[in-house]
């Protein structure tokens, strides 16, 4: 029984890191703007909050849907995770770099919302599979906050060659979890 819980925590940890990789890759580019450390701390906290809020909404919606679709919930959850991961991988190859918003005021909120939208979809699929909500949300928020801080600080030092690779890694991990849910 303890091995089951440890396995579930490890799976959630890897999923949290995979979701945070999107914030990490975008933060690398944002960090090249030489943002002050105080602002970096605030950006990480806001993104961490959104990475808890969006999956929470998704989990609630997924639990409501799961009562409607019954036995198809595992299939839907696995396909959704795989689809999100595949979208992350394919978007990494889109070479048209979007214009980054300024990390202040409403721009910071839109920035946090944009990098946490994929966590809504993951929350939706997790809501279909009856996951431990509080632990999941804390792991998602903490991982994305730390990875955002790392991306912003690392972006101050290095110029953007890791951005695409981290998004590919995150998408690959989500694809793997989706396949594991479907066939595991």
From TrEMBL:
Cleaved signal peptide residues: none
InterPro entries registered for this protein in UniProt: Mntp/YtaF (IPR003810), Put_MntP (IPR022929)
Compartmental location: Cell membrane
Superkingdom as given in the UniProt entry: Bacteria
TM regions (residue ranges): 12-30, 42-66, 72-93, 105-128, 134-155, 162-183
Keywords, ordered alphabetically: Cell membrane, Ion transport, Manganese, Membrane, Transmembrane, Transmembrane helix, Transport
Record PANTHER family: MANGANESE EFFLUX PUMP MNTP-RELATED
Family: Belongs to the MntP (TC 9.B.29) family.
Biological function: Probably functions as a manganese efflux pump.
Protein name: Putative manganese efflux pump MntP
Organism: Lentibacillus juripiscarius
Name of the gene encoding the protein in the UniProt record: mntP
